[in-house]
Design a protein that fits this description.
The protein has 166 residues and is α/β, with parallel strands linked by helices. 33% of the residues lie in helices and 19% in strands. An eight-stranded mixed beta sheet has the order 2-1-8-7-6-5-4-3.
Length: 166
Amino acid sequence: MSALIRNGRIEADDFAVLADDQTFPEGRKVIISLARWQAEAVLHQAKNLIVGVHLPNTVSVDELWPILQSAPLVLLEFPAFGDGRAYSQARTLRDRYGYSGEIRAFGGAVVRDQLQAMQRCGIDAFVLRQDQDPQRCLDAFKDFSIAYQRAADRMPLVASLRRRTR
């Protein structure tokens, strides 16, 4: 079982990921595919279920925003190190639309060295790969205390320090 880091802490996962052919478990928070989310939106709203959506990194957040804004959780996929599309999805959700729900990262590229960059983009939960030590991964959020560019986390910028010394 993979570890979950949420808001800087190792936590038990309170969401179950459902396959498209699985029925909704009674009283459980679930994550479903985008296709199922779109097809069954009326159902889970009517039953007052807590349902997150798995958003493939190939889709446009801008086009889906009208239906995403009500999701309590958006699961973003990081399949490989060279594929940064989910970073852009996270920034769009947080910065452009002010999404306040949980943005969760999962996939092969969710490793210690990427966690702080993911957090800077607005991701607040991380499903770690099996080979990642959760305790060591928590230290990733302390690696840098200053940044070169703005991001969703509002970390102090190098430029602001330079202005203060003049």
